[in-house]
Amino acid sequence: MVQYINHLLRDVVDRLDDPNKARSIQSRLTVIAEEIGRLDPPDFMPSSQANFADLRRLVRLWTEVGPEWWEALPGIASYPGSDPGHGLDQMHRLRARLELSEDIPLPRAGKETAGLIMAAVRARLKELERVLDEYRGQGLGYPKREFLFVKDVAMKRIIERDYQELRMKVFPSESHKCAVILAGSILEALLYDLILRDPIRVAAAMAWGNAPTKPDKGKFVKRDITARTLKTRGHSKS
Q: Does residue 144 lie within any of the structural domains?
């Protein structure tokens, strides 16, 4: 469901090493920030909710760093000279702007600092990719719907499971045909439970001439029971 965001994250990681591509990192981080901004921490596994919120904040912060900073990063990291002061002030300021001061203590040479910044950025983006795998679907934070009026325990468990899948996965993904099929299955199960809870109604259905000889409800076809019941209540076209 969020695999496309992981693809964007991997693209940014690949661009870190190339000065010709690094300039576009800011625009790509902006897109990533917009997409993860649509996700809610309660929809993640509990162990990842705080981590996701912090990483989302960090990515938003990184979008404020101009493209010239990202372009300079791989160039300084691959500087062929031996001057430790080359790019040092620039990298120390970038280190602070990216909130990586705790990861990269001073003093460091410019080239070394740039390499450590790139490694830290990669680590954060890969961590975000891992956390996104803990995303469980839209609406997870909402209270679980309980069908307390369903009497059949096994049927109730199936209905609640299918309803959660419909609400959290199928409907948010705009899989409309699948949503209609799953919703129809849920409604059919509700009707099935309603019909079988009344022994008088079941007895009347079983008294119908075309009813099976063995009243094993586990072998009944739902639509057949429904048809028999409606017929005994005078709803049949015949």
A: no
